[in-house]
Amino acid sequence: MLLSGNITPELIIANLLVLLVAMTIHEWAHNFVAWKMGDPEPKRLGRLTLNPFVHINWIGWLMFALIGFGILGSAPISPYRMPYENRRWRWLAAVAAGPVSNLILAVIFALAMRLALAAGLASSDSFFSSLIMTILQQGVIFNLILFFFNLIPLFPLDGWQIVLALLPPDLAYTWQKYQQVSYYAFFGLILLSFLRLPGIPNLLNVLVYQPTIALAQFLVFGR
């Protein structure tokens, strides 16, 4: 199993470290690609750096690592500061860069975990070996969670912006009209996932956690 219900010191340390890396890369990717697409603001604000202190909401980071949800960071990017030519596709590249960076990180962690398993690191009883394996495991899991979660097409997630960029102008205008409704739907989704009311399916489980486990199993074990 790639997920364990046992809270251990190794798991807490791994969650904090992995989430720090995952979110720093996620926000940096947004800023870097937006800058490349013509938005000068990320460079002006010093966001073209891998320094986590620039990108991370620390309270949200701690919440996400401990309970699985929190506001992790933001990127000061906008399509309206990009050149008008191909603006739609420039914006699509910038907003998609965050989730795609997490998918790439998940693949890297999975490859490292395969090597560690082949080397027999999982069979060692030392704290160091256990910590390394847990970091690699959570590196796959957390990055895939962030990938799938951010693809949900609800505002303010990246998925909402990706759909906006993909839609033709007339449909994009209609999509924007329902931005606030989408915002309420997003918080309703989060609330329902915590309440777990009988008879109501946990949509976050269906949209995020189930595909996360399936893809993690495939990346690490090939099945």
Describe the structure.
This protein has 223 residues and is mainly α. The protein has one domain (9-221). 70% of the residues lie in helices and 0% in strands. The chain has helices spanning 9-36, 41-44, 52-55, 58-67, 87-118, 127-150, 158-166, 169-177, 179-195, 203-221. The protein starts with 8 loop residues before the first helix and ends with a helix. The model has no long low-confidence stretch (mean pLDDT 91).
Q: Report the radius of gyration as a whole number of Å.
A: 19 Å
Strand content: under 5%
Shape: globular
Tell me the number of strands. Answer: 0
User: What is the mean predicted local confidence, pLDDT?
Assistant: 91
Low-pLDDT segments, ≥5 res: none
CA(first)-CA(last) distance: 12 Å
The level of helicity is 55-70%
Brief summary:
The protein contains 10 helices and no strands.
Give the arrangement of secondary structure elements.
Layout: H1 9-36, H2 41-44, H3 52-55, H4 58-67, H5 87-118, H6 127-150, H7 158-166, H8 169-177, H9 179-195, H10 203-221
Helix pairs in contact: 1-4, 1-5, 1-6, 5-6, 5-7, 5-10, 6-10, 7-8
